From TrEMBL:
Protein's UniProt name: AhpD family alkylhydroperoxidase
Domain of life the protein comes from: Bacteria
Keywords, comma-separated and alphabetical: Oxidoreductase, Peroxidase
Molecular function terms, GO-annotated: peroxiredoxin activity
Domain Carboxymuconolactone decarboxylase-like intervals: 19-97
Species for this entry: Saccharopolyspora antimicrobica
Lineage: Bacteria, Bacillati, Actinomycetota, Actinomycetes, Pseudonocardiales
SUPFAM superfamilies xref list: AhpD-like
UniProt-listed Pfam families: CMD
Length: 158
């Protein structure tokens, strides 16, 4: 499958926007959330949205960073899995509800927010919200333009 659009070649404005988007992604890597939580959330949001290129990237990066195959394979069924911490479960729950805004009919519920707030301070919660929002945006860029998956190399984007 070929992508419908090459963002790098789509003109100067697009190039500028992509540069800023990539910078935001780099800044999120420096956020105070635990690295594995960031990977789990990015992967789960991408699974929900069906973004193959992001699933490819986050699975490979998480593996390269030492995450176990068991944890990666159970992300889609995290509610029934025993391999995630309470904090990770709260982050995954928030990520799911925030990604499925239309299904949630009112956004993220107070109970879901309260569970996340039990595990994360304000700076971490802000990082989590931004990460979920960022992943939803990037997923949509990739899905709309049918970016192909499978060729990503761990760390390819810095």
């Amino acid at each position: 499958m070929d992508a419908r659009l090459d963002y790098r070649a789509a003109g100067p404005i697009t190039g500028k926007v992509v540069k800023y988007v990539m910078s935001a992604g780099q800044a999120l890597k420096e956020s105070p959330l635990p690295a594995e939580t960031k990977q789990l959330v990015a992967l789960r949001v991408s699974q929900i949205n069906g973004c193959a290129v992001c699933i490819d990237m986050h699975t490979k990066d998480a593996t390269a960073d030492g995450m176990s195959a068991v944890r990666l394979n159970l992300v889609a069924a995290w509610r029934e899995a025993t391999v995630f911490t309470g904090a990770e479960r709260a982050a995954l729950e928030l990520a799911e509800e925030a990604t499925r805004v239309a299904d949630a009919a009112g956004g993220v519920g107070d109970e879901v927010w309260a569970r996340a707030a039990e595990h994360y301070d304000e700076e971490q919660l802000a990082a989590l919200v931004i990460l979920v929002s960022f992943m939803n945006m990037v997923n949509r860029f990739n899905i709309i333009t049918q970016q192909p998956a499978g060729s990503y190399e761990p760390g390819q984007f810095g």
